[in-house]
Amino acid sequence: MTLKNKYEGKIVSQIKTVKMADDESSDIIISGYANTVTKDRAGDVIPKDTWLKSNATNNYSKNPIILAFHDHSRPIGKATNWYADDNGLFIEAKISKGAGDVYHLIKDGILSTFSVGFYIHDAEYHSKTDTYMITDLELLEVSVVSVPCNQDSTFSVSKSLVDAEAFKKEFVPPTEEAENTDIKEIQDMSTKNENSGLTLDDVQKLFEAERKKEADAKAKADAEKAAAAKQAEEIKNQAREAAKSIVDELEGKIANNQKSFAETLKAREDEIEALREEIKQVVASRTKSFSYNKVTDGMNPDTRKSVNDAVLLGIVTQKGTFGTKFGERVKAVNNSSSIEVSSEAYETVFSTDLIRDIQAELVIAPLFRDITMTSANLTIPVNPDRKNASWVSGTAYGTDASTGSEITAALNEITLKTMKLAAKSYITDETSEDAIIPLLPLIRQHLVESHANEIDRAFLLGNGTTEPKGLVTRATAAEGSADANKAGGVEVSTATASGATPITAKMILKARKKMKLYGLNVRDVTLVVSTEAYYALIEDDAWADVNLVGGASTKLTGQVGSIYGMPVLVSDHFEAPGLSKAYAVLVNTKNFLVPTQRTVTVRTDFDVEKDRRVIVATQRLNLESLIRDTDGQDKGVVAVTYAAA
């Protein structure tokens, strides 16, 4: 007679979770450092004092949850004890035997690392080491993960599973006396909890629900393994990424002018052709997407828009490009052929179009050459000095002197680095694709414009500490005359912010003289002016608009005219007119370059506390100078400012 049949209808106040006879598991106690004071893979450091602040773990103590892989829908246990010491945050936690596959992976020693999820309230950036020192935070959760951000956050199983034979003894049929005792205990519990309404039939249902939950967890784990296998395929995209870097560089050349683009294209034809063949070989070796370029090449605008929407929808919903109903319909465009479309093909279209749209919004950044970096810092040698060849007399023929004098060059070293730029947007947790799709263009446009506007602003006015050092900031620090009308690299004109003394082309020409050697070749010098300066200059006789100096293609870089042969660009990122405020900057574009470590990457996550999804677009780039004097000051940039009224 089973326990259920024997006590049918009895009410109990406590439920003891009973495992099936073939399950020998028990709760596990694990312990280790959830986070250490060492620098993690993201470049962050959390010192001991941060964890000792009251707000660091105060809220967490109310619900010390342990998750699997930062998934808020996968709780696997609770923290039972934690403290901070000189090594970091030490934690001890109990992992529930209802954690499914995660439980067994921990038991077998496969999962052995922690990762923490938290809000950052305050941090300090150390530029020399490219490190963020987090000084104030709020701990949200601790997760058991496969690859932690902090490489030292490991744990060990400190309490073994119960002995299998001892566990089975719990199910040995009791004696009659023991049965009577059990009946009495359950009756006593029933008397004390008459209003609980929980029967043994309910208990059985709870057991069945627990088993279903474990089965669902196993199915989810299997799906995650499949997703991990798919992610491993991304390594094969390296050749295509290399080609994309070449394309990005060429697009920057287009932004300068069509002539330089044509020259660059001709010079790089062999390299591009070699990369194209390499890509073809990689693509041909894949069974699912061996001809994806035939699908995306020549794609009409409507289909291309649908592809972009499908990829972004897959990112927002975290279902993948073809995991949504809309994505399935977009993929079906090629179902009639023998070529099978891959998600990588559509993701490439999305990434390329996103970068293209950002570059189309830029005004200042396209002036400079790009350089692709594989790390956040790169040291390169430069030769700032120009040496002349020697003339050889006829009497020197046949001797060592016939080759001229030796040319020596003192190479300098400069270190290039990149900085992270991020923009985020939010969307409520909609479950209907029809509700999300109309919002995708707005989200995409927000990410594009926020990146483009901030890149141009920082390249013009950036402080050089938490953002790139802008042209105006570099000019202010540059070496120059120190008379009453000049300060550093800033040329003070007689023009006033009120407009009483208007800005003229001759004032710009006077500022150009201060560039000295780097202002001689007007083809290398570009003038960037504020909107106020632009409207003042178009009334000057020395001004020439684009109808006189170039074709419509100059509009791509914001060029609106020319002064004394120098192209003129307009930017709305200058500060408001005022005393000593810059209204123009002259720059020798060959003296600067844009190091880029990572192109635009779009990621998403769910903000459980605010019930919304956050979409984040990031990239790493900077503005660096190649020519500097012995004091480290930049050469070839001059800013022009307003004078006192």
Characterise this structure.
By secondary structure, this protein is an alpha+beta fold. Among the domains are: 28-159, no CATH class; 297-361; 458-643, no CATH class. 34% of the residues lie in helices and 26% in strands. The strands form four sheets. Strands 1, 2, 3, 4, 5, 6, 7 and 8 form an eight-stranded mixed beta sheet that branches. An eight-stranded mixed beta sheet has the order 13-14-23-19-15-18-17-16, sandwiched between helices. The model is unreliable at 1-23, 158-196, 284-294, 478-487 and 549-556 (pLDDT under 50).
Could you tell me how far the N terminus lies from the C terminus, measured between alpha carbons in angstroms? 103 Å
User: How would a textbook summarize the main sheet?
Assistant: 8 strands, mixed
Helix count from the secondary structure assignment: 20
State the share of residues found in helices, binned by percent: 25-40%
Q: What is the mean predicted local confidence, pLDDT?
A: 74
What is the β-strand count?
23
Rg from C-alpha positions?
34 Å
Give the low-pLDDT segments. Answer: 1-23, 158-196, 284-294, 478-487, 549-556
Strand percentage lies at: 25-35%
Summing up helix and strand content along with how strands pair, one would put the structural category as alpha+beta
Any idea what the shape is?
A: elongated
